[in-house]
Amino acid sequence: MPEPALKIVESSDEANNTRKKVEEKELKERISSTHTEELIIGLCGPIGTDIHFVADQFKRILENEYNYECRIIKLSSIIRKNAHGGPSTVLASKYAELEALINAGNDFRKQNGANILAQLAISEIAIHREKLKLKAQDDTFKTKRVCYIVDSIKNHEELELFRLIYSELFYFVGVFSNVQTREKNLEKKGLKKEDIYNLIDRDSGEELKFGQRVSETFVQADFFLRLEQSHPPVIVSKISRFLNLIFNSDIVTPTSHETAMYQAFAAAGNSACLSRQVGASIIDEKGEIISVGWNDVPRFKGGVYKSIVQDPLGQEDHRCMNFEGGKCSNDEEKALIRDVLVSELVARNFVKKEDIAEVTAVIKSSRLKELIEFSRAVHAEMHAIIEGSQKGAQGMRGGKLYCTTYPCHNCARHIVAAGITEVYYIEPYRKSLALKLHYDSITENETEEDKLRILLFDGVSPRRFLELFKMSSGHIRKDQGKKVVTEKKNALPKKTISLQAIPILEKEVIKELKSKHLIKTDER
């Protein structure tokens, strides 16, 4: 008799385990069913870049190939609709109209917060979703294949809010054309040269807290798209490739450009520089990595200081963070020059003692702050060139260098001397005089092949490299030995979040807008 009793207990345990697994599966399925196929794509680019064309192509591909409904939300239209003093009527010239639009946007942000345009765009998304629910006569949260394309984000505060609200659903695309191309595009709209220069300067990086900060917003993109010499079919192909990565609708692997920039991005993490972390990599003509480098303090017998297992307390690490109280030598030397200069001016009676503070502030804000040669660190580009030369790499001549930041003029001359023919970067560097000092050897125009070309990086951002190129756990590449072909019209985004969470966050934004009387109570 004891034996059957044991079997009954075992059978009961198995049944309980099975029931628990079923319940866990049902719970996962219930939660998964609340996830949405919605997408939000934000676009950013300097004035004169044809962002509208890119927005239209995203819309066309998503609607025709992925069976999505797309809505383009123009932040400039939100300024015209909501900002007092906005260009509601056609002004005397296109320049006056664009100036008025920028001024109205700045004033509107100053009055209501730097991310106010993002708040209003988010309210449009929320209202549209509610309308879809009413149209379907369904009050439950159900996924819809809808994509909202935001044209265009100019301020990093706006970008941060979109990412906070929509998280995995949000993709940010940086669209770029060089200055010459942008000038031509603006000339076609009837703008004069001097007006174009003023607009480009204002757009790229106004010093106002609530102004447009395109340059510092653009660099945070998930995908970079360079337009200047690309024909429409090439641009469409690049957009299609990016959407394939978002949806896992085809097998896409990184280009040698993307791999090299990711290597540079990863190398930057080694840097302990107190100013900024920069990474670089060099590839030969075949696309093979020759070397990587980062900015840090050189050490005796070659290379730079690193964190090593044998020195956990950093007693042998003489980088700036551990050197003389953790001071930046470049800043110290500039401060010394400034103080000596002020003392000399006072001693020679050019400056009164009561004016010392004011004069010091003027000198501090002058181009003295742009001096870079007093740093102890070797720059990332130089480090990569040295490492490559020490390995006896022959492919450096005619190769390409990838750097997370535009090279300074000191590095630029070494890059030219090394025989490298192309440089790709992500972050701008205003202190660089590379083009001014070496106009005979360097260009930013990709059509000039008789000079070192310094070009903005094009492709998947290194920030999203692993996430976008890694196949999701549920994706199967083959079935019975054959590649699985995904039907794009039914393809799900690789990353999704619950639609039950989004409206709660959107309501917080709408509540804020109502408190500012920027949205009517009955609109939501």
Automatic annotation (TrEMBL):
<dbReference type="InterPro" id="IPR016193">
    <property type="entry name" value="Cytidine_deaminase-like"/>
</dbReference>
<keyword id="KW-0378">Hydrolase</keyword>
<dbReference type="GO" id="GO:0004132">
    <property type="term" value="F:dCMP deaminase activity"/>
</dbReference>
<feature type="domain" description="CMP/dCMP-type deaminase">
    <location>
        <begin position="255"/>
        <end position="455"/>
    </location>
</feature>
<dbReference type="InterPro" id="IPR002125">
    <property type="entry name" value="CMP_dCMP_dom"/>
</dbReference>
<dbReference type="InterPro" id="IPR015517">
    <property type="entry name" value="dCMP_deaminase-rel"/>
</dbReference>
<dbReference type="InterPro" id="IPR016192">
    <property type="entry name" value="APOBEC/CMP_deaminase_Zn-bd"/>
</dbReference>
<dbReference type="GO" id="GO:0008270">
    <property type="term" value="F:zinc ion binding"/>
</dbReference>
<keyword id="KW-0862">Zinc</keyword>
<keyword id="KW-0479">Metal-binding</keyword>
<dbReference type="GO" id="GO:0005737">
    <property type="term" value="C:cytoplasm"/>
</dbReference>
<protein>
    <submittedName>
        <fullName>Deoxycytidylate deaminase</fullName>
    </submittedName>
</protein>
<dbReference type="InterPro" id="IPR027417">
    <property type="entry name" value="P-loop_NTPase"/>
</dbReference>
<feature type="region of interest" description="Disordered">
    <location>
        <begin position="1"/>
        <end position="21"/>
    </location>
</feature>
<dbReference type="Pfam" id="PF00383">
    <property type="entry name" value="dCMP_cyt_deam_1"/>
</dbReference>
<comment type="similarity">
    <text>Belongs to the cytidine and deoxycytidylate deaminase family.</text>
</comment>
